[in-house]
Amino acid sequence: FNAGPFIESLRSSGYDVYTATADLVDNCVDAKATKVWIDVLPSSVQKPDGGTKKVIDINSKYYIADNGCGMNKETLLQAMAIGSDIDHDATIDLGKFGVGLKQAALALAKTFTVLTKQKDEPLLRSTFSCDQIVAEGKLGVTQPSLADETENQFFNQKTKNSPSGTIVILR
User: Fold this and answer.
1) Does the pTM of the predicted model rise above 0.90?
2) How far is it, in rounded angstroms, from Cα 32 to Cα 20?
3) For 33, 52, 93, 141, which has the most beta carbons within 10 A of its beta carbon?
4) How far is residue 38's CA from residue 107's CA, in Å, rounded to a whole number?
5) Contact indicator for 163, 144 with CB cutoff of 8 Å
6) pLDDT digits (tens, 9 = 90+) for 24-65
7) Which residue intervals of the chain are DSSP H helices?
């Protein structure tokens, strides 16, 4: 099984930016978030006259942050895997097949990182990279690890110092 073509087909599944964003925000709601922050940082491109201008394109960075309950290491590992074993309540949750986070994030970017923290627990991080999967030809999940100090500061800034929450960083 060569995972490269599978991932590329997942990326081109027809999710538009609105549907993908709504799916990611739904994860925030599922996590009992009372606040969700969405930021888009435009990239700079060269203008024909030699100057630069800001545009929103594939090189822009997107951040979706919430103050929900966050995830522990095992839940983060499952969330980053294609087809997870996480139980969902079909009466209130949109997700049930374990592909929503990946499909939505990959519709917007080739790489995404999740920073997540439960109350009174350390901040965790994990990254999903299409380029890595295509290069290796197999599905693999980056093991969650402790976030560094820069990521902790970023988390606190984007979540307004929430004691728990999650940020999906799309690049």
Assistant:
1) no
2) 19
3) 33
4) 16
5) no
6) 999 999 999 999 999 998 888 889 998 999 988 777 889 999
7) 3-11, 17-30, 73-80, 100-108, 130-136, 149-158
Question: What residue has token string 């290069």?
Answer: 135
- Is residue 64 helix, strand or coil? strand
Tokens of 93: 């949750």
Query: What is the rounded distance in angstroms from the CA atom of residue 70 to the CA atom of residue 28?
Result: 9
Query: Mean of the pLDDT values across residues 7-20?
Result: 78
The residues that bridge with 128 in the sheet, in sequence order, are 112
DSSP label at residue 27: H
Which 3 state secondary structure label does DSSP give 113?
Answer: strand
Q: What is the dihedral of CA 16, 17, 23, 29, to 10 degrees?
A: -160
pLDDT tens profile 107-132? 888 899 999 999 999 999 999 988 88
Q: Distance between CA atoms of 166 and 30, rounded to whole angstroms? A: 12
